[in-house]
Amino acid sequence: MSETSEMNESTGSTKNTGDAEMKKIIAYVGYCGETDERRPKRFSGIKVAIESNESHQGENQTRYHDWILYQVKGGYRVLDCYKTQWQGESNHNTLSDVLTPQEVAEEYPAIANEYFSAEDIAEDLD
Questions:
Q1: Nearest Cα residue to 72 out of 28, 15, 24
Q2: DSSP labels for 31-76?
Q3: CA nearest 14: which of 46, 50, 45, 66?
């Protein structure tokens, strides 16, 4: 199951390959529309990649996702931040459970393709 969250980061693609320490992350989960129903969720992790499909189908997209991949104890978590400019729709974002590289590839292929190699995913299948 996923929960909803907010991201206040720049979009685009990046990859962190250094040996960074786990940091405390606070993700505000819930919908943000006419009323702010977000709640904080805390976990420890390392931000390792950011990907967006904002310009996937050309400029000026009115609906898109930003994904942030965190390495956490036991696997990875993905912040899936859905953004919309349509009246009556709310921005909402999900925070995944702890996932293996294969599960990230199945559920979030855009961020998985950016960060994991085919070997990383294949190793997870063994």
A1: 24
A2: EESSSB--EEEEEEEEEEEEEE-TTTTSSS-SEEEEEEEEEETTEE
A3: 50
pLDDT in tens for each of the 126 residues of the chain?
Answer: 444 444 444 333 344 445 678 999 998 887 877 777 788 889 999 999 998 887 656 566 688 888 999 999 999 999 988 888 888 888 888 899 999 999 999 999 989 988 998 888 887 665
Predicted TM-score of the model (pTM): 0.74
Structural domain of 7: 3-125
Joined together, the tokens standing for residue 44 give: 């420890």
DSSP state of 1: -
Q: How many domains does the chain have?
A: 1
